[in-house]
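FAQ: What does the model actually see?

It sees only this:
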Amino acid sequence: MGPRGSERRGRSPREEPAQGGGGPAREARASRASASRRGERRATNDSAEGVQRRRGKGARRRSRELALQGLYQWLIARSPPTAIRTDLAASAGFAQCDSAFFDSVWRGVTGDFDALIAAVRPYLDRPSEQISPIEKGVLAIGAWELLHAPETPYRVAINEAVELAKLYGGTDGHKYVNGVLDKLAAAARAAEIVAARKSD
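And it is asked to produce this:
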């Protein structure tokens, strides 16, 4: 009875951690679970921020597309910019744009159109009158961002203009736009370009 009774009443060393509520193995598992939860929260937050950034980028691109659409109407029909803006605001796609950015682009480009074309004229290989309305509109939008929107990196301004030309311009229009705006950027954003090259 002695030995068996002792075995029934006593606890083996293997049972101690399980009933004592601790031990290295349990602590390690708890630590891994906590780290996993923190990682999941960070991943969720990072994912949400990434989606927000992508939405913001898409909204600005939509703003540029609508501005180009309006410029085309303005250059062809010469309707008042305010009337065109009203029509664009009523269009189905306007809800997807950044309306504040759109208004800045629209007012800036229509208000300074001749000056913007004059700014790119030294880099054109033909009279501006021979450039299609689409490519002229794209150049005006790109020039406005390079000259009057310093918060937009010069590479973004050029790339977005090139994308517009690819979507709506002629076959090689995007190459022409890229070349012209690249030269304008070299003059208008020289310090930014030097800094960017140093950091590359």
